[in-house]
Amino acid sequence: MKSILMSILLSCVTRIALADPIVTVESDDPNTLVNEVTGESSAVAVGAGGTASAYGTSWTTVCRVPCGISMSERYHFVSGPGITPSRRFLLPRDGEVTLKVKTGNEIIYYAGAAGVLPIGIGLFGAGLVAEICAAAGLGDTPSAKPLMLVGAPITVAGIAMLLLGRTKVEVTRKSAANGAVTLDLARAAVTF
After folding, report:
1. Contact 70/91 with Cβ under 8 angstroms?
2. 38 CB contacts (<8 Å, ≥6 apart)?
3. Which pTM does this prediction carry?
């Protein structure tokens, strides 16, 4: 009988909804915003001329650093004026959470993604194709090694710009000193 009661109790406890976490943000930029994803949608159109697809995300800004508020379990991301938006992340279910943010510069990131990296890859790729054609004896192609020599460092610079321009978020959870679990019973719900 005791084991049956224990299993019922454990089953109920695992279904109790825990409180939303209290989130504090530490950032190197005072304009850092935490955003909550509120919806996503996608559409695909198929026609005689081909297919087209569109994808959209809606969000709401939840707080500006340092925050210190309760946030839901939805996906979140960090952004702000001049800040590259971060990747999405989920928050732990309850407790105190700190977001440690290292902001990236969106000008550096997008210049690398839209300009420098494609130019570098294009120059290097054109040089490589020309060298392959010359080696195969296809036409009277001059040496394209200069294109490759210029394209390679531009490609590396574009990759560096992408990496340096990213916003990084570390989610850390403050653990209770005594290891106790706290439940917000006012928000608890038990389902069978």
Report:
1. no
2. 58, 59, 60, 74
3. 0.66
